[in-house]
């Protein structure tokens, strides 16, 4: 939710430097920019980065990054929504032990069935 509110502006140039740095630290590098923004040339020949509205890509790639840094068990995250069904954030779980994954998958699957 913090990422969506404070970093992912419609135009990357409108994000505060501190917020972009925080996202870089959270993500581990700047590759998130290529996932969420496309380059577009302006009328005056400048290039700007415009946000792509696809949070599923970010969630999928973050799961992959968790596995890459040593978490062997990363079940599919749950998209948490508000009372009007608007997306709020993804709930992730990452573990190095298989037993925890089975427990979390059971909880996540029960929750998914109620959506």
The major pleated sheet works out as: 2 strands, antiparallel
What is the count of structural domains?
A: 2
In order across it, which strands form the biggest sheet?
Answer: 1-2
- Rounded to the nearest angstrom, the distance between the terminal CA atoms is 20 Å
Low-confidence segments, ≥5 residues, pLDDT <50? none
Mean pLDDT: 79
Radius of gyration: 17 Å
Which overall shape is indicated by the principal axes computed on the Cα atoms? Answer: globular
Structural features, described:
The protein is globular and about 55 Å long. A two-stranded antiparallel ribbon has the order 1-2. It has a two-stranded antiparallel sheet with strand order 3-4. By secondary structure, it is α+β, with helices and mostly antiparallel strands. The protein folds into two domains: 1-53, no CATH class; 54-115, no CATH class. The longest helix is centred in the last third of the chain and has 17 residues, at 98-114. The protein has helices at residues 2-6, 17-27, 32-36, 55-68, 98-114; strands at residues 37-41, 47-51, 78-81, 87-91. The chain is built from five helices and four strands. 45% of the residues lie in helices and 17% in strands.
């Amino acid at each position: 939710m913090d990422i969506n509110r404070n970093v992912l502006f419609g135009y990357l140039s409108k994000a505060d430097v501190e917020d972009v740095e925080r996202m870089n630290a959270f993500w581990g590098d700047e590759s998130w920019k290529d996932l969420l923004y496309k380059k577009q040339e302006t009328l005056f020949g400048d290039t700007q980065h415009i946000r792509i509205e696809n949070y599923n890509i970010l969630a999928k790639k973050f799961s992959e990054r968790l596995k890459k840094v040593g978490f062997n068990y990363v079940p599919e995250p749950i998209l948490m929504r508000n009372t009007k069904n608007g997306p709020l954030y993804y709930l992730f779980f990452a573990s190095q032990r298989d037993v925890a994954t089975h427990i979390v998958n059971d909880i996540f699957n029960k929750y998914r069935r109620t959506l």
